[in-house]
Protein 1
Amino acid sequence: MKADHLDLTATVAETVDLTPNIRMIRFAVPQGVLNLEAGAHVTFDIPKGDGKMTRSYSVVDDGKYPEMLSIAVKLEPASKGGSRYMWSLRAGDEIHVSANGNAMPPTFSASDYILLAGGIGVTPMTGMARTLIRTGKTVRMIYCVRTSDEAAFAEVLDQVLGEGLELLCDSAGQKLDLLRLLDSIGPQTVLFMCGPQGLMESVRTGWQERGLPVQNLRYETFANSGNFPTRAFQVTVAETGRKLRIGADENLLDVLIASGHDVLFDCRRGECGLCKLQATEPCTNIDHRDVFLSPSERARNDCLCACVSRLSGGHITVHIDGIQHGRSG
Amino acid sequence: MTDRSYPLNTWYAVGWDYEIVRGRMLARTICNQPVVFYRRADGTPVAMDDACWHRLAPLSKGQLRGDNVVCPYHGLEFEPGGRCVHMPSQETINPSACVRTYPIIDRHRLTWIWIGDPASADPGRVPDLHWNDDPEWTGDGGTLHLKANYLLAVDNLMDLTHETFVHAGSIGNEAVAEAPFRVSHDRDRVNVTRWILNQEPPGFWGAQLGKPGPVDRWQIIHFTAPSTIALDVGVAVAGTGAPEGDRSQGVNGFITFAITPETEKTTHYFWAANRNFDIRNMSRTTIWREGVRKIFAQDEAILEAQQTAMDANPDKVFYDLNIDAGGNWARRKVAAMIAAESRSLRRAL
């Protein structure tokens, strides 16, 4: 387990509605405790019934002001509880920070950068844009939103990037030409991205197909979107025979732990593969939201990462012990 | 908020450029941070945290594969930007698997790292030690690994009164300790100028000048915060106009120092003894280098003893004499840099 866990109270300093459904929340935090450089994230404890759940948010900051933590929260209509709770916060309220780290640190080794943001995935990219521009890098950013209402950071990014910013608004018929984008990328270009799973998977696949250097594609995932809408589903644990219901606002890992199942996990972001479970038989309903399994492993439909992946509905029986790890060969 | 005695947003020398080579890794701690150094095939230097992302094993004990570092423990491979490009036993690579890398640059025969906010690393701010590689100058130097806080070394160089006592016979004599000096400062710089007029030269300088009789001797200390010093020293036949700027009847050296905190109580001390006369004479270069090396060994002994005494007397404080004016200005410049770093943090509120 990494030492990025902490025990810290943050006080809401102010809330600013950037759009009708995206709110910036700024917290006063003790100086020098949190890593707030571009790409960093912070995990909050959020009350849930008698217990708590955790939600991670990218910081909007770029490390210049380590006494202020800013995040942007999109209010989800079918909120999993996280965004609704965050939206209930008022200046002076306190919240517990339980972890902090940077899963997408800036890299300064290239001279040419592309930032690709989809929707609320723009949050870490604002700090990234500022940091890279400050270092004198060439930065081009493509910011995709569904409606202009959603373009919470368009104005500030326009100030930072000017001509370098391309805002694509889906409702105005402005579509991302992904193939053209990928074809324009040279071996020295670093691309940072954060956005919906479909977008990121297309880029990852295209990147690999073109043989672009693996180190030049940087991305962050909180796996809060998948190939299917987020719905409730059911899981039977083969070892205990217990049948569990995973609500639309829950994840399988939390439900397994809460129901007393002893399962391994670490990153909770779908990266490390420690929480992988084996299905007793192939299941085509699996909505893989991790970035650990390779396309061929996914295609077998016989395992899933409990921290982020779900079913599009229905039921699956899984083993939580005797899990096969390593290359599938 | 900070107990650090050193700022982070500055260039620190990590070693002589020849110490960082292709095909081999160098482990060195800078500002309490273990860092591994090596060169890419094209010669550009790389600095990354000397701890694998996975289980923190020291990467410097691993091996290089092309321009990449392979961890000695489980074979994770990191490219020069710090991103993991190979992991064992899995088909994908965790997107967050990175080790921190640092801006690093070769200049004036030294290699410099920016350990603080990489976004503010400006190559234009590498301290000017051009005497180390200026074609009109020649010289060579060495490294001390000093078991003392780096500011004790700065104090030592900002007040050369100690030459009379620590370096008696070679460069020190009674005249140094009793000659007046002028201290001036501007932004991140401090200058201390001392002229010792019409005195017999100490042994080393008499031999360099090669002319009998009294000399006008100068010691002009150019300090750039936090810890770079260029020491302009020399002697000229007394009364030939050296204080007014005519050094033609004298000999001149520029001793350069790049002083880097390793930890709070240990220091990398890189020095070079340069001169602008008789520059094709390699024997003289050796004589200068070895002479200066002996002098700095005397400084090393007193500074380490001072650090030991400080540790043994934690309840005691320093007192200042007027000879400490240069060192005190230097420390004030350093304190301002540290304060500016935490102020830029506070400005957000």
Protein 2
Amino acid sequence: MKHILLAIVALAALTIPSNNAAAQCGDELMKQALGAMGNYQYIKDFDIKLAAGTSSTGTKFSVVLNSRTHYQINIANGSTNAEKVVVQIFDGDKLIGTNFANGKTFEAFQFICSKTGAYKLQVSCPGGGEACARAVLSLVKQYSEAEMPK
Amino acid sequence: MDKKNYSKNPICAAAIAVAIMFASCSGNGDNQPANFEDIPDSLQSAPLTLSENVVNDMIQNISSPVEMANQIKNSGAGFDQSVLNDAEKMKDYSTSFKRALNLGAYSADLGYINTFNKNSVVVSYLLAVKDLADGLNVGQFLDFNTLSRLAKNSTNLDSLKLLSVSSFNEIDRYLREQKRSNVSTAIVAGAWIEGIYITCRVIEQTNDKELINRLAEQKDIASILLIILNNYSKGDSNFQALVSKLDQIKSIYDNVKITTEFGTPETKEVDGMLIIEQNEITHVEITDEQVAQIIEKIKETRQFIVE
């Protein structure tokens, strides 16, 4: 089933016109990220392209996340990246979390959101090198008030 | 968990952010209208107050109807085809404004249909979506044959859901790259209203507390959508009419109280998976009267879109 799904997405990606010079990188990464997503429900994806020398700022994406909702983000890194990209979630100026933890950069992480609102995903390469990546946001579970993890 | 003050939800933060955006955009040469040669009618905008870049950032702040459809299913409510916009009505939408709004509405309907795995009705909605997308010159992103084939085979429904949603994301991304964010905005507005409309219809039948809370929590999203729509309303009677409807919805939401009990986020590794918990608690205060008022205004706005 997963193979059929991936084949369809890959076919669709190939048939979609793109004016992006790095489309090949993006399409292949999308396939990888979707494969890693598993059976969770796809919500949206983020096409990440970092120019050299943008280590401190990286690039930002806005996304609405809902309360009492469990999300997963899978990140597929470009094969030529010198290092894995770091994703940070911000609520306004407040850092909620990052995929860099315990001395390593995770290619997937889950976020249990408890407040509906607009969040920022900031993606960067600490070393400041050029990089491309694709991140897929998926829905793991929606909790009722009683079910919400304490 | 470190609990801090129990404070009101700072909706003013959004207003401040927008004010900063306004300030940063003034005098910016980027805020000129895009070239809409291929969209010859009402979606040719007057000069924008907010730049394309700012709108692009804000427009992503409108949540996916997929999540709302899942919440409806979780509530135990059954599938109700009568809440959908009739797919046959696609023929009536002849202006770009109406096509964009109803492309959004049908996308939300499609999300609802797919969530309930109702592949018996999905093809007519795929046809409607394809027709409206072609009318907006974005039909190339919808592989109708593949989608239709997936819809007819019950073992491929996960693929159908994924391809449907990713196709809409591609349309949105393409429109923004082409500086046609007015079209994208109308699509997003149509999808948001339709998603909320379906939720309201279910609330009318079930009075489900979880769904009512979800409806209340759309307060900030309604404010963001209104700001974006206002950007296109200057000299455009279609957008002005939609803004007027949204303004009434926002006025009701202004009296809905949402407060947050702040906490300290925690990160832990469980079986190799990194899990981040926000650890905040949201409290919603909404009266039955406010719910009824929101439902009434959402119905009016939805009627304006689909009529």
